[in-house]
Design a protein that fits this description.
270 residues; mainly alpha; 2 domains; 14 helices; 69% helix; globular
Length: 270
C-alpha cells in the first residue's frame, strides 16, 4: 500500500498533468482568453457573477489584450507554482493554494462572461484548489472526500432534475433539445453529422432511449454515496458521459477530468 503522502503527491502531479494537457487542448482550439479576444460579455444567471459585475472587472478586460494575456499567464502558471512549492517549500503550500484559489475564482468568473462555457463546466478548476489548502494529510483527504461527494451530487442531481421536471416522461424531450442545440447545423450545408442529428430528431424513440440511458448513467452515481468499491465503474461512466455529451450535444465537459482523481486515489494507512 502507498503511504498517504505519496498518494497526495500523486494527486497533485496528475492534477498538474491534466491541467497542462487541457491547456494545450484549449490553445489549439483557440479557447484561451487572449484567443477569444473579448469585445462583449454575456451575464450568466448566478449571484457570484452579479456581485463581481458590481466591481466592474469585466469592463477592464474588454478590448484589452494586455489584461487578457496577464490573466491567462496567472491562471495557467498557478498549478506549476503550487507543485514546486509543495515539492521544495512545503511551509508555504497553504499560501500558494489560497493564491491559486483566488486567481481561479476571478479568472473563471471572468472567462465564462466572454465564452460559451458555463460555471458548471469549469467547476473542477474552481473547487479543486480547496483540497490543497491544508498540509495535514487527514485534512487533505477530508476535503478530497468532500469534493468527491460534490462530484457525485452533480450527476445524481441531474438525474433527479430529469424526474422532477418530467423530462424523463416526455418521449420528445431529447429531440426537442437537439433541435434547439443544433439549429444552426440543421439549417447549414449537408454533412454526415447534420444527417445524424436530423435522423435523431425525427426518430423520437431512439433519441428518447438515449435520454433514458443518460438518466440511468447519472443515477448510477448514487452508488458512490454508499461505497467506494465501484468508483472504477463511476470513472468509466464519467468518461462515457464526457465523450457522448460532446458527440451528441457538442458540450465539452473535458474540464471535469480532474474529478477522476478523486475516484482513483483514496487515503491508505502506512
Amino acid at each position: 500500500m502507498l503511504p498517504k503522502q505519496l498518494h497526495k503527491n500523486i494527486i497533485i502531479k496528475w492534477y498538474c498533468l491534466l491541467f497542462y494537457a487541457l491547456l494545450l487542448f484549449k490553445f489549439f482550439n483557440s479557447k484561451l482568453l487572449f484567443q477569444i479576444q473579448p469585445a462583449f460579455f454575456t451575464v450568466k444567471l448566478d449571484i457570484v457573477t452579479y456581485l463581481l459585475l458590481l466591481l466592474n472587472p469585466h469592463g477592464v478586460v474588454l478590448n484589452n489584450p494586455t489584461v487578457w494575456l496577464v490573466l491567462d499567464v496567472c491562471f495557467y502558471s498557478m498549478p506549476l507554482v503550487y507543485f514546486l512549492t509543495n515539492k521544495f517549500k512545503q511551509e508555504f503550500v497553504t499560501v500558494a493554494a489560497i493564491i491559486m484559489l483566488v486567481i481561479n475564482l476571478l479568472y473563471i468568473q471572468l472567462y465564462i462572461l466572454y465564452s460559451l462555457d458555463s460555471i458548471e463546466m469549469q467547476i473542477a478548476w474552481l473547487l479543486f484548489p480547496v483540497i490543497f489548502l491544508t498540509k495535514k494529510e487527514s485534512s487533505f483527504y477530508l476535503l478530497a472526500n468532500g469534493l468527491r461527494y460534490y462530484f457525485l451530487f452533480l450527476f445524481t442531481s441531474a438525474a433527479v432534475w430529469k424526474f422532477t421536471q418530467h423530462g424523463l416522461f416526455n418521449v420528445q424531450q431529447l429531440s426537442n433539445i437537439l433541435l434547439i442545440q443544433h439549429k444552426e447545423i440543421l439549417t447549414a450545408n449537408v454533412t454526415v453529422y447534420q444527417n445524424f442529428m436530423y435522423w435523431l430528431t425525427h426518430h423520437s424513440n431512439i433519441s428518447y432511449s438515449l435520454y433514458v440511458a443518460a438518466t440511468l448513467l447519472e443515477l448510477m452515481f448514487i452508488i458512490g454515496f454508499f461505497t467506494k468499491k465501484y468508483d472504477w465503474l463511476l470513472a468509466i461512466a464519467t468518461i462515457t458521459f464526457i465523450v457522448l455529451d460532446y458527440l451528441i450535444m457538442r458540450i465539452i465537459y473535458i474540464d471535469w477530468l480532474p474529478f477522476l482523481l478523486l475516484l482513483f486515489y483514496k487515503p491508505t494507512t502506512k
